[in-house]
Amino acid sequence: MSVLSLHSNFFRDMFSLPVPGSCDPSCSRQAGVNTNEEVDGCPLVVLHDSAEDLSNLLKALYYAGPEFKDNDQQDFQVVSGILRLSSKYLIDALREKALAHLSKAWPTTLEGWDAREDRARSYESDAGPPTTYLYPSPIAVINLAREVNAPSLLPSAFYDLSRYSYAKIFEASDDELLHRTRSPPLSLPDLQKLTLGKEASQHAVSALIQSLGTSPNNNSNYYHQHASSPSSPPSFGHRRKQSAGSRMCVSAAACRKDFGELVDLATQHYLMDRERGYSDPLYVAEELGQLKSVEFSECEACARSLETWATRERERIWNLIPLWFRLER
């Protein structure tokens, strides 16, 4: 009782109530205390929680904090249970630790997202089968965030889920999305948010490639509606006045040709073939920026222009994710 009362406002209030026998049966039932059963002379408190989750919660309280690991699927079972019960029983310090740990896999910053993706790619390349995933199902994360009121987890979880095809979301096999953490399906409101956001991310890939070859004033209506047009395209092949510390394109005709080929290649790969990136504009912008050393190896000015443009676009896209999935309403 002393340990639970020290960490939990819920149990502190429960144990401050009169002991069984000093009040009518209704008050002890409301507190969860069984007046008819004892364990080692102590009144029994009935908790309607998973035995596994409760065991992990008590271990975290008694052993000086939780032993969280690497945010993989097995770790998520432990962390989610602790987060669920620490929220339910008002154990604020433990809730904060669980949320901070989950935020490493479901971050709120682009820098955190890139670190997460690097780790996932490294794990999946070493794991072998293409159905081997490091992180739990984003569906499970969305449902958990709703249950414990943790909205900071939602943008990255919705974005991750939007990268899956609808067939994989709704018809996953035992080794795939829905069954990775035995998660129930999304609620209807969240399913609607996913559909709208997934469509927006696909539009973003098209607009991203289109903006490479057009003025910002000619971008798609989608971006005008959201007042968030792609930034000015890189100025490939354009000669500028030389000033102190600036660089100019050294081969305008060659760079314009390379630039045109880059747009055609991106269109074919990301829009026509629909390889990885079709629903992942952050990935597309990153890859386009990394092509600077391949497509423009002879022109440092154009290579830097492409890299700067891609970096700026990724920041813009990251900031739009909550809007895409209607998470700010």
Structural class: mainly alpha
How much helix is in the residues?
55-70%
Contiguous runs where pLDDT drops below 50 for at least 5 residues: 22-31, 215-227, 236-246
Spatial order of the strands in the main sheet?
A: 1-2
Radius of gyration: 26 Å
Order of helices and strands: HHHEEHHHHHHHHHHHHH
Describe the fold and architecture.
This is BTB domain-containing protein. It comes from Gloeophyllum trabeum (strain ATCC 11539 / FP-39264 / Madison 617) (Brown rot fungus). Residues 219-241 are annotated as: Disordered. The protein has 329 residues and is mainly alpha-helical. It folds into three domains: 2-45, no CATH class; 51-186, no CATH class; 201-227 and 250-324, no CATH class. The chain has 16 helices and two strands. The chain has helices at 2-7, 9-15, 25-31, 51-62, 73-88, 92-102, 110-127, 138-148, 154-162, 166-170, 188-211, 221-225, 252-272, 281-290, 292-295, 300-324, and strands at residues 33-39, 42-45. It has a two-stranded antiparallel sheet with strand order 1-2. Strand 1 (33-39) and strand 2 form a beta hairpin. Helix 5 (73-88) runs antiparallel to helix 6, helix 11 runs antiparallel to helix 13 and helix 14 packs antiparallel against helix 16 (300-324). The radius of gyration is 26 Å and the shape is elongated. The two termini are 42 Å apart. The model is unreliable at 22-31, 215-227 and 236-246 (pLDDT under 50).
